Amino acid sequence: MSLQLGTKEGYLVKQGAIVKNWKQRWFTLHRYELKYFKDKMYEEPIRTLDLTSCSAVQFDYSQDKVNCFCLVFPERTFYVCAKTGVEADEWIRILQWKLSQIRKGR
């Protein structure tokens, strides 16, 4: 993975906001936008998260799942899980790197 490009995509399992069930979603990270889609084939994202308003990305152990991390936004904390620890680690690393770029004023 190249941090210069700073893009990543892949399936992650995300917890719903109201109904706390877990659903697989296709995530794409490009520039400072993290989007998730119902599936890889969909062109319209369910939601676009603006990382400039994200305050933290970290491993999360509060869920009964493994390889989870959370993204903290003012209005909501998003909980997502990767299939493997390595994958979770890659997502966290690139997201934290993005946040550090934002804080440095890009």
Automatic annotation (TrEMBL):
The gene behind this protein is: DAPP1
> What is the name of the protein in this document?
Dual adapter for phosphotyrosine and 3-phosphotyrosine and 3-phosphoinositide
CDD domains tied to this protein: PH_DAPP1 (cd10573)
InterPro entries linked to this entry:
PH-like_dom_sf (IPR011993), PH_domain (IPR001849), PI-Interact_SigTrans_Reg (IPR051707)
Q: Where is the PH domain?
A: 5-100
Gene3D superfamilies membership:
Pleckstrin-homology domain (PH domain)/Phosphotyrosine-binding domain (PTB)
Its domain of life reads Eukaryota
Task: Report the source organism.
Answer: Characodon lateralis
Among Pfam families, the record links this protein to: PH
